[in-house]
Amino acid sequence: MAPELSNEELLNKIEETAKEYEFTYHGCSRCVVRALQEHLDLGDGSVWQASTPLAGGIAMMGDTCGALLGGLVAIGLVTATQDMEDEAALFSSMGQGYRFFRKFVRKMGSSRCRDIQTARLGFFVDLTDPDAYERAKKAGVYDVCGKHVGETARLAAEFIFELRDKEKDSHKQSM
Question: Chain-centre distance of CA 165, in angstroms?
């Protein structure tokens, strides 16, 4: 049996896995979700699969960052319930999503894919233009985006750890 990893070691693994997935396979949203699922045992393969069209700023449009959306999907797996009638759980999960969104924007400077790419690359990659995409690949877009995807996965994992710690604390206090 392998020794249990510290939180820091686990955060490093999550960050590296997400970064490697983005570099190798692409699709920022699914790379964040899959890395978090694998290392935190969240959901199943259908979840990262369903997150795929969120990549590239929602379906390659450069709008809301796909990595951010992947992090929010994972947070939903931790905070939401399958009870559609549980309004308290709905608002609690949305509130946690809001907190994560704000934390992401503070760290990354924006929630928009095109703004983040422009800040980090110096230009926006129009994924709908095959020539622009090829130029971006040659310019190292996946090195830059891979780093961002890894950072986002790590940020989401840290947030999930905080949620789990609060849950443990509240459980101890209710005993």
Answer: 20
